[in-house]
Amino acid sequence: MQKTCSEVWNNCLQIIKDNIPAQSFKTWFEPISALKLEGHILTVQVPSLFFYEWLE
Question: Model-level pTM greater than 0.70?
Answer without folding.
Answer: yes
